[in-house]
Each structure stands twice: as structure tokens, then as C-alpha cells.
Amino acid sequence: MAKESRTVGRPYLLTVRASLVLALSLLVGIAAAGLTIASGGDWAGALLTGGAAVGGAIVLFNQIIDDSDGVR
Asked: For residue range 49-72, what is the model confidence (pLDDT) as tens digits?
């Protein structure tokens, strides 16, 4: 007999679209913070820059990435 998975019937915490938007936004924020540090900025400025970049990227990717699940 095959064992049933523990996740059967449990909903996911995030959709694939939400995970993709958050992951891409975090990459943008990390890149912005890294570039700030590389250009001679301090850690506080890099964190503020990265946070602002994440916020803007979430708005951007939320608008760009379609949520229709391929149904038209």
C-alpha cells in the first residue's frame, strides 16, 4: 500500500504567482543593496535602498505577471 502524503487536502501558503513576485522582488532588493555597498555606501543606506527597491519591484512584478492561470 502506498502512503498518503501529509499535504493532501492542505492548501498552500502562497500561490506560485505570489512566490514568483516575492522571489523576484527580493532579488532586485539584494542587487540594489549590493550595488549600494559596492559603490561605497554604508550598511544602513544599503538596507534602506534595498527595502525601497523591494517595495517598488513588488508593485512592478504584480502588474506585469499575469494571474489568469493561462485561461483566456
From this structure: 999 999 999 999 999 998 876 666
